[in-house]
Amino acid sequence: MYCSSADRSQRATTDRDAHAEVDTTVDGVPLSLVSVPGVFAATGLDHGTRLLLETARVMDGDRVLGLCCGYGAAGVWAAKTGGSAVTLTDDDRPATRCAECSLAASGVDGEVVTADGTAGVEERRFDTVLCNPPTHAGDGVLRDLFEGARRVLSSDGTLWVVDHRDLDFRPQLSAAGFGGVDRVAVGEEHVVLAVVG
Q1: For 21, which DSSP code?
Q2: How far, in whole angstroms, is CA 22 from its chain's centroid?
Q3: How many domains in the chain?
Q4: CA dihedral sign of residues 139, 141, 143, 145
Q5: Which domain of life does the protein's organism represent (predicted)?
């Protein structure tokens, strides 16, 4: 898969030949995303991520981390709505290759890091962390993700996280050192939680 933007040209290769271009709009913001089979929600923006983007607040100039970024929807959205400095991280190389192409296809800049959780960005601080975590991965993985988010979140920053209505992330968030958790949006299957650093 090849991708480019006006500012840079890059080549993102993948073992999967077919890719999908996912064009969608969230609250009037057009997103041009690139996906491949096997990546989460490969054929279109999932309901949880859509609810997250419709709910989260990103201020101009925020340093934003898209944790478990998949093909980069949250990062593209943050860059387009808040003029934010965006860093995306995921442990799946095909997903991060797609995220690189999604940034380019949408004409926005950002950094993409292939790493487990926050491992590739531990020395940085972010004002906003956007996360739709892999709920199927289990409590240990979720706890590790939230602990990492806590470490990289600035003292007055906010973690915005998608939760499934049938689950409750409050124990994992509490174990990660977060205090108050606000349920800020409720959808058919998902909720969005806002947690202040």
Answers
A1: E
A2: 16
A3: 1
A4: negative
A5: Archaea
